[in-house]
Write a structure and sequence with these properties.
Length: 145
């Protein structure tokens, strides 16, 4: 059973954020599964992927915040830094060959991410939806004239 099942209530008003969040949740689920299976090689690979993907995702959100002059950018990015440090710490512990059953920090990562999505990212998505102009509607076809 996965650690976290995606629910429609996790969806925000910005599609790219939802895609990224679902990928992060699936990587955290995969890490949890690797712990249950005591698969340390799999765990090293998944945590490396999680670190890379979190870097990519946080950069995407930082770019969105910059582009629209989001007022809470600094505190939002501070939260990203906090999450990133926890994943880095997990990676160091894996490289130090700490037993996987000690790595219940994965549960913390899942709880942190859900809280961040439901509160902090929801605020950001609402701001983006209200302040970034939507793509223009395509012009009507000339053929109908
Ligand atoms: Fe965020």
């Amino acid at each position: 059973m996965p650690l976290c099942t995606w629910e429609t209530s996790f969806n925000l008003e910005v599609g790219v954020m939802n895609e990224h969040h679902q990928r992060l949740v699936s990587l955290i689920n995969a890490a949890y599964d690797a712990i249950q299976l005591n698969d340390s090689h799999g765990m090293v690979r998944i945590v490396g992927e999680l670190l890379d993907y979190a870097t990519y995702h946080f950069k995407t959100e930082a770019d969105l915040m910059r582009q629209c002059g989001y007022p809470s950018q600094a505190s939002h990015m501070e939260q990203h830094g906090h999450f990133f440090r926890h994943i880095s710490d997990l990676q160091s512990r894996l490289h130090a060959r700490e037993p996987l059953h000690n790595l219940e920090i994965v549960i913390f990562l899942k709880e942190w991410l859900m809280q961040h999505i439901l509160v902090t990212d929801r605020e950001l998505a609402g701001y983006l939806a209200a302040n970034v102009p939507a793509a223009p509607e395509p012009l009507p076809s000339q053929d109908s004239a």
